[in-house]
Write a structure and sequence with these properties.
By secondary structure, this protein is mainly beta. The chain has one domain. 0% of the residues lie in helices and 43% in strands. The chain is built from no helices and six strands. Strands 1-2-3-4-5-6 form a six-stranded antiparallel barrel. A hairpin with a 6-residue loop joins strand 4 and strand 5. The radius of gyration is 12 Å and the shape is globular.
């Protein structure tokens, strides 16, 4: 049986916020809403941010920002190097 092709979000998931220009920061998923289409995460500075799954790109993008950061979910078996 095939599993998901990428990590599924859940509370406590490790993530990485990728900003324009390549700056990256660690984050942790705090809440999952709308069957995983909306996530609240806490960045490494303690700030809470919201990311929505884009139907056009299938990526998590900062909610309400046209050109904001994106969120990458990391699983426990890899370090998220892409």
């Amino acid at each position: 049986m095939l599993g998901p092709s990428r990590p599924l979000p859940h509370v406590g998931s490790r993530a990485r916020i990728v900003h324009f220009g390549g700056y990256r920061e660690h984050a942790t998923v705090l809440a999952v809403h709308e069957d995983g289409r909306l996530l609240e995460v806490e960045n490494e500075h303690g700030r809470t941010l919201r990311f929505a799954l884009s139907p056009a790109s299938a990526r998590y993008l900062a909610q309400g920002l046209a050109h904001g950061p994106r969120l990458e979910l990391l699983d426990g078996n890899r370090q998220g190097t892409r």
